[in-house]
Amino acid sequence: MSARIIDGKAIAEDIRAQAARAVATLKTVHGIEPGIAVVLVGEDPASQVYVRNKDAAVKEAGMRSFQHTLDAATSQDDLLALIARLNADPAVHGILVQLPLPEQIHTNAVIAAIDPAKDVDGFHIINAGLLATGQAALVPCTPTGCAILAERALGDITGLEVVVVGRSNIVGRPAAQLFLNRNCTVTMAHSRTRDLPAVCRRADILIAAVGRKEMIRGDWIKPGACVIDVGITRVPREDGKTRLVGDVAFDEAKEVAGAITPVPGGVGRMTVAMLLVNTITAACRAAGIEPPDIG
Ligand SMILES: NC(=O)c1ccc[n+]([C@@H]2O[C@H](COP(=O)([O-])OP(=O)(O)OC[C@H]3O[C@@H](n4cnc5c(N)ncnc54)[C@H](OP(=O)(O)O)[C@@H]3O)[C@@H](O)[C@H]2O)c1
After folding, report:
1. Which pLDDT belongs to residue 50?
2. Could you give the CA distance from residue 114 to residue 17 in angstroms, rounded to a whole number?
3. Ligand 1 pocket, 27 CB below 6 A?
4. At what angle do helices 267-286 and 8-25 cross, to 10 degrees?
5. Which residue's alpha carbon is nearest to atom 42 within ligand 1?
6. d(CA 199, CA 46)
7. pLDDT exceeding 70 applies to what percent of the chain?
8. Which of 86, 91, 118, 215 is most exposed, with the fewest beta carbons within 10 Å of its own?
9. Structure confidence at residue 137 (pLDDT)
10. Which of 7, 98, 119, 204 is catalytic?
11. Percent of the chain at pLDDT exceeding 90
12. Does residue 91 carry a pLDDT above 90?
């Protein structure tokens, strides 16, 4: 039987619409206009596309977008000076520094310099620590998107077995913490995991965040499981163009899974939507208002 395809595009559009309504209410009722500063250092083409998409989504939701495009040769001190100005600017509720950064800049130093209350990427160790201890945090956007997609597909996920393949600080680790906080039983797998196919077959919800195209095969999946594919790898097509491929062998997996996200059109769409939600959350907390429940 073929799996239900989880429509990340439609779910992300729904969240963006909820975000736009929340922004309208914040403006009319509280006089608050959520604003996000997006900092791009250098001219990496993929980063330029991501930043353009984020800018468009922020404006579409009725929020303010402050773009800062810096030369690839920018020094770490100059970038830290900009972050200090953004930290102090009350019109800026969220700060996002697009990664990767040029090699003369230490990513961890930059993340540590962002005010945790404005850290809408959720990468600051204060936010990572809050998430890991089950407290209210700004949570990384992609893992939150994964959790919402799983909940939209399955409803109540309490007590389910979740296997997260990948343990990066931006996807795998926070994804595991999120599902733990949602009362799932969580296993984290990585490149040293023994018998990864058997571990994956335990999962009611399988999160693939590896970055290796089609590594997870159909027979690694428990029949009826919900498969969330975070992976994005660009591969050449026969006509000389390129296409995006996930970490899961989709055609095999959809014959076994109960529900599955496609690539593209799955998790990727959720990341920008959750950035809007995090910015609204940061703006509300800055004003001492309870953030709206969007999801
Ligand atoms: N959809 C989105 O919006 C979005 C956002 C972010 C990332 N992504 C995509 O998600 C993927 C993962 O990104 P990331 O930043 O988390 O990558 P990353 O930092 O490279 O981490 C990859 C993880 O996969 C594990 N891994 C590598 N090879 C493995 C193997 N053979 N078996 C089991 N585990 C293996 C690594 O394990 P070790 O720790 O043991 O090395 C590591 O923990 C990439 O394709 C990326 O493009 C998508």
Report:
1. 93
2. 28
3. no
4. 20
5. 166
6. 33
7. 100
8. 91
9. 96
10. 98
11. 99
12. yes
Between CA 266 and CA 244 the distance in angstroms is 12
Q: Residue 206: what residue type?
A: L
CB atoms under 10 Å from CB of 162, counted, come to 27
44 is a catalytic site residue: no
- Indicate the length of the chain as a whole number: 295
Nearest to 206 by CA among 256, 240, 278, 156: 256
Start-to-end CA distance of the chain, whole Å, equals 29
Pick the atom of ligand 1 nearest to 267's CA. 1
Report pLDDT digits (tens) over 32-59: 999 999 999 999 999 999 999 999 999 9
Expressed in angstroms and rounded, the spacing between residue 158 Cα and the centre of ligand 1 is 26
What residues does 226 pair with on adjacent strands? 205, 259
> Does residue 262 line the site of ligand 1, with CB under 6 A?
no
